[in-house]
Amino acid sequence: MMSRFTDSALRFKKFSSIAVKSGKGSNTNLRSIEDEGISSIRTRWYSTCFAKLQEDVPKDDNPVSQMLVDSFGRLHTYLRISLTDRCNLRCQYCMPAEGVDLTPKPQLLNQDEILRVANLFTSSGVNKIRLTGGEPTIRKDIEDICLGLSNLKGLKTLAMTTNGLTLAMKLPRLKECGLTSLNISLDTLVPAKFEFLTRRRGHHKVLESINAAVELGYNPVKVNCVVMRGFNEDEISDFVELTREKPINIRFIEFMPFDGNVWNVKKLVSYSEMFDRVVREYPSIKRLQDHPTDTAKNFKIEGHQGAVSFITSMTEHFCAGCNRLRLLADGNFKVCLFGPSEVSLRDPLRRGADDHELREIIEAAVKRKKASHAGMFDIAKTANRPMIHIGG
What we know:
This protein is of the alpha/beta class.
């Protein structure tokens, strides 16, 4: 067993020093930006992505303003809003075993503040908002927040990432309030393993929520599965089977390091290894044409209603096409999931800052966004908040 882990670590180290092509029609993915002699490659890569992204600049009344364009020409049209750092699960890769210091309620953005900040972004060109947590459905005003956001001019997609524990009973009303897209997290199909990983019960409730989403017409219903060696890599084919009869998009996610989750390269199952497992059992799998801003590599299996995707944050980053920004539950603004830099929007908002001042703060932060996050091993050494504070 240990020799397999050692071989895996050596393979990852080798991967971090090369550039590869990954899939038909995809862009060149750089394994590590620290490699020697890749600056010219990276420049061409960014230029290509920017040219493709410009084709998707909104042509409606909300063109992308300079506030959302970074120094590399990336257009940020996707805002992720964490509504709370509270959760009804205690997933091991998300929250440290000892728990976290939760943000006092008065320090969280209230509904009016969320809508005001969101309006600043949508009026500047953001056309997609995703609600995250913690667990967003535990906010008592979640329906009102969805309704307010869905009415913002220029917003095309209102999505949510949820653990699905209480979703089934709330989803009909959330759909009426404008929720258009769903990601439901589920890392195992075995109830006992679910309880071990999440430190809570409720596996059947998550399955009920997935089925409820399908019945309500969400298509696809995205299911996020973090793959961890020694825990659930043996279930990959079982998850793929969920896509056979239903419009489910299984998204296999590489295990990522965050504060307190005891990240170790030995736990990481790489995209290439996951894909090899799938293709051996499903040789008809074919690559789909991905959008330049996609974080996932998307595939279709012949005869399956759904799809299979891989999110390769560790072994093949997708920073060149990044169009995402993050508003944390405490009002801090974050331009990169793996970057420690944050700036408060809550404090100036509560001091009485006008929209112009808030836009200047946002634009300055966006302009400071780096070309890409650190390499796989450096990320693990970088100070960052636990995932439950950042938002999924």
